[in-house]
Amino acid sequence: MAVINPLQTTLSPEELVQIYRDTNGVGELVAYLPEDAADAAHACILAGFSAAVSRDTPIEELVSAISTVIAGGIFSDELFGPLSETMVAPEPQQRDPFKLTPREQSVLEGVARGASSKEVARLLGISPKTVDTHRARAMRKLGLTGRSALVEHSRINGW
């Protein structure tokens, strides 16, 4: 795991993910950003960072983010606002659903059954915000754009 400020480089978040993961073997990246860098935080999460934390929050927030990442989750500081599906452009081709992480699969199965983010969060022992982040990332991977598409996808795949 690496905690970095992606604004201190000219590389894009995607390039940072590639360099840290592919070249340096770092599995998870945490973006540590100023409070006014919400756009950068969202770009980092969408590029594959596991967390985005504001430097302006108490250190406990960074500790919470790292704990969430270690547990297999994704964390986005509340100061950066929620991630929404509209921020996530669907990929042109649907990916193989087995490329989802186990947590993404669990979240999508719960949502497809009609559970709210709060209900899924309670079931999985994670925050509703983390559920929303997993859902957005997984739906982007699958090229899905809404709940009805998710329900149809889950029906076809026997979830």
CATH architecture of the largest domain: 3-Layer(aba) Sandwich
Low-confidence stretches: 85-98
Overall domain count: 2
CATH topology of the largest domain: Rossmann fold
GO molecular function: DNA binding
Organism: Roseivivax marinus
Domain HTH luxR-type: 93-158
Protein name: Response regulator
In short:
The protein has 159 residues and is α/β, with parallel strands linked by helices.
Write out key terms for the chains shown.
159 residues, alpha/beta, Rossmann fold, Arc Repressor Mutant, subunit A, 2 domains, 4-stranded parallel beta sheet, 7 helices, 48% helix, globular, Tscrpt_reg_LuxR_C
What's the SSE blueprint?
Blueprint: E1 2-4, H1 13-23, E2 29-33, H2 38-47, E3 51-54, H3 59-70, E4 75-76, H4 102-112, H5 117-124, H6 128-142, H7 147-156
Parallel strand pairs: 1-2, 2-3, 3-4
Helix pairs in contact: 4-5, 4-6, 4-7, 5-6
Protein name: Response regulator
Organism: Roseivivax marinus
Keywords: DNA-binding, Transcription, Transcription regulation
Question: Could you explain how this protein is built, in words?
Answer:
- The protein is of the alpha/beta class.
- It folds into two domains: 2-80, Response regulator (Rossmann fold, 3-Layer(aba) Sandwich), CATH 3.40.50.2300; 85-156, Winged helix-like DNA-binding domain superfamily/Winged helix DNA-binding domain (Arc Repressor Mutant, subunit A), CATH 1.10.10.10.
- It has helices at 13-23, 38-47, 59-70, 102-112, 117-124, 128-142, 147-156, and strands spanning 2-4, 29-33, 51-54, 75-76.
- A four-stranded parallel beta sheet has the order 1-2-3-4.
- Helix 3 (59-70) links the parallel strand 3 (51-54) and strand 4 (75-76).
- The protein is globular, with a radius of gyration of 15 Å.
